[in-house]
Amino acid sequence: MTDRSIRKSVKRTVSGLIARLWRRPRLSADQVRSLKPGRILIVRQHNQMGDMVCATPAFRAIREQYPEAEIGLICAPVNRDVVLHNPHLDRVFIFSKRACTRPGPLLSFIRELRDFAPDMAFVLSSVSWSVTSAALAAVSGARVIIGGDSRPFGFDISRHAFSLEMPSEPDTYNHAVDHNLAPLAAIGIVTDNHDTLIVPSSEEIRRAEEIRRSVPGDGPLWIMHPGAGKTQNLWPADRFAEMAVRAVAAGRPLLVLQGPADGDVMVRFRAACLRQPATSERDRITEIPPTTVGVCAALLSASDRFLCNDTGLLHVSGAVGAPTLALFGPTDPALWSPRNATTTWLRSDAGDLGTLDSDTVWEHWRTLPPRPETA
User: Which of 186, 212, 241 is the endpoint of a domain?
Assistant: First the structure.
């Protein structure tokens, strides 16, 4: 048995024993829906941006079920900007797992939760189950905790520590939005609106307008994002560079977005741009440093088209309805591509993005249909 397996086994055993100490009276789904909590805490501190965007309809479902409640969300720092101005949330608590390994920040965060004093907590999960999330719900002091069944993930926690268990499914067999909504729907908490949602602030909209004015060229803005959170999701940077030069050669104002983890990709992208033959076109390619999700959302909402890999900004573009061409490798676009009329995708052969050639991508990107409202 490896050290990692031993640690996991100890974690499962210890967490199961502690869960018995936090045992709560069981409630039925009907009883949970009939409650009128003053404050609700949602715990979803996973750090994937795209998955958080896909969870926003779940926040809407909880809001519609409890319209009078004050609702707070625990999220990771990377997802702060995704949810900060969400109209279905009243407060956002930022949980830094790294900082909270130290007693001081951890106790301060727990005090913040206790001051919020939630009556009810929802522990939301998708393809993983978090002991940390369950613990945060418990230490918040919430009298009622609803969360996914931990047993499919190998933990014996939920049947003791939760007032009501929701079904859990470790594997995604339906679209990511539906996968996030399914546990709530199983206990009768539903919404008819499955659209994802990101709301930029007025300052972020103003900043996006400033950036747009700095991009050379007239006409609707074209945007691309060569980065991705996973290496296997990256279309080669030199082909993004080729798309950039083709776009500006066609007279399109082009803006290149990047995230804080895209440094290596951008180095390769810039080097490939320098190898392109048309110097005047290279000079009209505009890139900006990493910025907030809200600024990206505002830029995308005013753009004519967007080219990206399978990554978090794909879901941002889907939330604001930007005409988008998404490039998929090993991930199934039927499960992860935004479900709207403005998103088109290409998938590589056998999950190898290197098999997608530049001419095919250019033709699909160039001929994307406009937004439905402007068609």
Answer: 186
Whether 32 and 61 share a structural domain: yes
- Whether residues 177 and 276 share a domain: the answer is no
Q: Is there a single domain that holds both residue 215 and residue 155?
A: no
* Same domain as 271, residue 179: no
3-state secondary structure of 337: coil
Whether residue 337 has pLDDT greater than 60: yes
Cβ(42)–Cβ(113) below 8 Å:
no
CATH number at residue 298: 3.40.50.2000
Domain that holds residue 347: 202-374
Domain count of the fold of the chain: 2
Go through 201-226 and write b for each residue having 16 or more CB atoms within 10 A of its CB, e for each that does not.
eeebbebbeebbeebeeeeebbbbbb
Q: pLDDT tens digits for 160-175?
A: 889 999 999 888 788 9
In this predicted model, what pLDDT tens digit does every residue of 46-95 receive, in sequence order? 888 999 999 999 999 999 999 999 999 999 999 999 999 999 999 999 99
The count of C-alpha atoms lying within 13 angstroms of the C-alpha of 18, restricted to the half-sphere facing its C-beta, is 13
What tokens appear for 61 in the block?
């479902």
b/e sequence 123-162, b meaning 16+ C-beta within 10 Å: bbbbeebbbebbbbbbebbbebbbbbbbeebebbbbebbb
Query: One-letter amino acid identity for 211?
Result: I
Tokens describing residue 155: 């933990």
- Single pTM value for the model: 0.90
Residues 6+ apart with CB under 8 A from 270: 241
Question: Does residue 122 form part of some domain?
Answer: yes
Q: Residue 158: which residues within 8 A CB-CB, separation 6 or more?
A: 19, 134, 147, 148, 149, 150, 151, 165
